[in-house]
Amino acid sequence: MKRACRAPALVLALAPALSWADAPPAVDHQPALCTVPGKAISLCAAISDDGTVAAARLYFRRAGERYYSFVDMSFTGISYCGTLPPPRKKKTKAIEYYVQAIDDQYEPARTSTFRLPVEPEGVCEFPPLEETPERAAEIKVFATSRKQGKKLDDGFLKNGVTFVPVKK
Fold it and tell me: Quick one: pLDDT at residue 14?
């Protein structure tokens, strides 16, 4: 006589005891199609969690570079937004970026990596530009590796940008 498998019944019996409180945050971001050189970039994402979103960060690098840097994203009342430094004309052809969130239980979640082409004004119809002058003038960029040194990648303008290297 064959024995019936009881594993599904056991899983269903334990299901009410399992908690969704340990679920990672949900991150929803609609990537921008392009941006323009010389202007700060604002990228936003809808981030939610069953607890509290402890941190939201926007990781970015000039396409082809090895290391990412990041900026913290802040809650705007609707979504989380971060401001990237302006890409330099003729130095940056595209920016690679992703959004990462961590909840109060240290559960991380991130988007796919997106490519943001840098095109001349007039070619890029709806660039995601930072419209708040104060945010564009006070961008704090954090390094992720000691090998990035003590300054922002040359593919980005440094005006109004504070670069925070990794401490030894």
Answer: 43
- Exposed (0-12), middle (13-18) or buried (19+): which is 19, by Cβ within 10 Å? exposed
Question: Interior CA angle at 113 toward 107 and 117, to 5°?
Answer: 145
Q: Measured in Å, how far apart are the chain's first and last C-alpha atoms?
A: 67
Q: What is the pTM of this model?
A: 0.86
Query: CA-based Rg of the chain, rounded to a whole angstrom?
Result: 20
Per-residue pLDDT of 8-27, as tens digits, reads 444 444 444 445 567 899 99
Locate the domains of the chain by residue range: 19-164
Report the run of H or E that residue 142 belongs to, with start and end: strand 139-143
Check pLDDT > 90 for residue 99: yes
Q: Which fold has domain 19-164?
A: Immunoglobulin-like (2.60.40)
Mean of the pLDDT values across residues 107-121? 96
Q: Quote the CA–CA distance of 80 and 103 in Å, as a whole number.
A: 14
Residue type, 139: I
Q: Which long-range contacts (CB under 8 A, 24 or more apart) does 16-20 make?
A: 20/50
Calculate the average pLDDT of the chain: 90
Amino acid at 72: D
